[in-house]
Amino acid sequence: MMELDLLLPFGLAPEELARDLLREMCTPALSVLLARSRRTHYQTIDGFSRALPHEIHLAQRFGLAASAEASPGIAAALMQHFNLPATAGAWFILQPVHLHIARDHLVLTDPRQLSLPDDDARALFAAVQPLFEEAGSSLLYGDAQTWVVHRDEWAELRTSTPDAAIGHNIDIWMPKGANERDWRRMQNEVQMHWHTHAVNDARDRHGHKPVNSLWLWGGASATALPQGPYDAHFVVPGSTSPYRMLGAAKAASSAIGIIQAQPRHALLVLDELVGLALAGAWAEWLACMQRYETLWFAPLLAALQAGELDRINLTLSHDRALRTYTVSKSSLRAFWRKPSLARLTP
Questions:
Q1: 174 three-class SS
Q2: What's the CA dihedral at 179, 183, 184, 188 to 10 degrees?
Q3: Mean per-residue pLDDT for 292-297?
Q4: Is the pLDDT score of 1 beyond 70?
Q5: Which of 56, 131, 294, 335 is deepest in the core (most CB within 10 A)?
């Protein structure tokens, strides 16, 4: 028998739009799964948080440091994924980003919007790698979106995930703590080196946002490697989330392949809603939920009814809360619980 943990970040509708969004949704399978489940976990974030609820949840599931006080410590896990050499000490993720100027402050743009090609990323990397080496840091390249840096002096910094900071004044989201000024100096030097870089000149000519800064987050000891409870981890094809690297996730385009693989305990992360919700693209959010109904919710409900799945733990979140609902074949027999999407409301 198989148990599936299904994580749907930003699957909870925002309170101010919930009534309108749910009225437009036609997801009968999801309605059944939610109505005939029981709530088994509930988590809320009160006040300021440097990570989103689903990010904290994922890191905790893999035994990594995670709280609202700092971004999850996933740097070492990403290094393992890219087969990068990790000397002892503190490592951080460095993510190329675009900061745009609002009236009186800087705002972090969603890095997904950069669409940074590998050749361009490597050119930008080569331009600033000597800066880090001169400062006694090791800067390593993972992929276009993911670099890592070794800097023990920054070990106590409290950093924020990019997704938590997107669209906000970056001042309160910047690294805080001992040696934060050291990081700011390094960030400023990078920004100056990239200001007139050929890559950004070309991006400007083609109407693309320049890559004008780096985002530091995910700090962890080189020995902080993930130890998850899963024997299989799946993500949607094309996922760019750094959390896809936890547990060596495989791309899965539909429920059928996962069920046929017959893992004992699997994790499936459907993370396409994250960028849509952060951008306020609610029409696209609805369209994505409809695709999920066809590709995932309906086949998983059928598998549960047929006994091919023993249990589904459906975890949904938004930027302040996370809920898990557990449904089994036996709980589906509660026919008096009419199909409903009410549990998608905050």
A1: coil
A2: 150
A3: 96
A4: no
A5: 56
Tokens of 134: 């001169």
CA distance 45 to 319: 8
Q: Which of 136, 130, 125, 142 is nearest to 182 (CA)?
A: 136
pLDDT tens digits, 46-86: 889 999 999 999 999 999 988 999 999 999 999 999 999 98
For residue 62, the Cα-to-chain-centroid distance in whole angstroms is 14
* Cβ neighbours of 298 (radius 10 Å): 18
Strand partners, 268: 6, 234
Distance CA 235, CA 9 (A): 12
User: With contact defined as beta carbons under 8 Å apart, do 324 and 38 qualify?
Assistant: no
Q: Answer yes or no: CATH 3.40.1310 is held by domain 75-221.
A: no
Share of the chain above pLDDT 90, in %: 86
Q: How many CB atoms lie within 10 A of CB 39?
A: 11
Report how far residue 108's alpha carbon sits from residue 90's, in angstroms, rounded to the nearest whole number.
25
Give the start-to-end residue ranges of the domains of the chain: 3-47+226-344, 75-221
Q: What is the pLDDT of residues 305-314, one digit of tens each?
A: 999 999 999 9
- The hierarchical CATH code for the domain 3-47+226-344 is 3.40.720.10
